[in-house]
Amino acid sequence: MKLVTYQFQGETAVGILTPAGDAVHPVPGVSDMTALIARWPELDAAAVCRGDAVPLREVRLLAPIPHPAQDVICLGINFYDHAAESGSVTGKQDNVPKAAIYFSKRVDEAVAPGGAIDSHSDMVRDLDYEAELAVVIGKPAYHVREADALDHVFGYTVLNDVSARTIQAAHQQWYRGKSLDGFTPIGPWIVTPDEFDVTRPARIQSFVNGEPRQDSTIDLLIFDVPHVIAELSRGMTLRPGTIISMGTPAGVGMGFDPPRWLRPGDTVTCRVEGIGDLTNTVR
Prior knowledge:
The chain is α+β, with helices and mostly antiparallel strands. It has two domains: about 1-60, no CATH class; about 70-280, Fumarylacetoacetate hydrolase, domain 2 (Alpha-Beta Complex). About 15% of the residues lie in helices and about 30% in strands. It contains six helices and 18 strands. The strands form three sheets. Strands 1, 2, 3, 4, 5, 6, 7, 10, 11, 13 and 16 form an eleven-stranded mixed β-sheet that branches. A five-stranded mixed β-sheet has the order 8-18-17-14-15, with no helix packed on it. Strands 9-12 form a two-stranded antiparallel ribbon. A hairpin with a 5-residue loop joins β2 and β3 (about 25).
């Protein structure tokens, strides 16, 4: 199933997308995705899908979780092809990490599908895009085994880890350069695990103004989803609604010679096969 957060007639609601993708069934009594995650085990989704549906053209999609309760957990240099790309930029010969590189991304409000990426052009000259697969945790995970890790997943979505490269370099870490307001588009929806098999080599891509930039498959992840959930849960509780963004493949703007940064007016599409397209415009 595809689960959405949307606005209709001035109200925010969550719902289940119809199989045709042209309408949404509202979930009664649930106003946000975090509440839906909590209710999901006992929710009669089939009954919801037999109810009335609102045409998708009449609603405005929001990010599936517009206001994450905690920072997004991100992985750096987690695709083999991006490790090689980053190594060529930094001059590192062997850039494949021996252990997962984790960092957090602060999100004041996640940017909606079709929403604007703030270029912060008064302070940023090297705005970059990063198409990523994001995992949404569905039930508490603490000291889980890799074999059981996927049981704790609520679903999957697409995240654009927008980055200001000079700010990253100036502070010698990634937090601030990835956490400016308007730097986290998420969407267009969450796809439940019964419709998205994360163990298969789904294609992940990005496009700028229609031009292909990134093109890889998620089997090139250095550390896969079960490993990451199991490792993070050792000593740290992952609560329902936690978002984990799994890293980006090669083809980001900084990897070109010369670099190809985003500019106001550019349109960026991040795509994960089996999930959908997340399209935003830089302002």
